[in-house]
Write a structure and sequence with these properties.
Number of domains: 1
Order of helices and strands: EEHH
Low-confidence stretches: none
Strand order of the largest sheet: 1-2
Shape: elongated
Radius of gyration: 14 Å
Length: 52
């Protein structure tokens, strides 16, 4: 992905339920094109408050 100038987005929606050593967060220090996000709806129950 880096040689093709592509961004890699990792969604760790269930990051609170996995070992911290398995997180992709360590990759952001190695690669400029990696972004790690976490879903607020799972970890912070935001979906309960943002119903449309």
């Amino acid at each position: 992905a880096q040689s093709m100038d592509v961004c890699v987005v990792v969604d760790e929606a269930y990051g609170d339920f996995m070992e911290k050593s398995n997180s992709a967060i360590n990759l952001i220090n190695k690669f400029d094109n990696v972004f790690v996000v976490r879903s607020l709806s799972k970890g912070w129950l935001l979906s309960r408050w943002l119903k449309v």
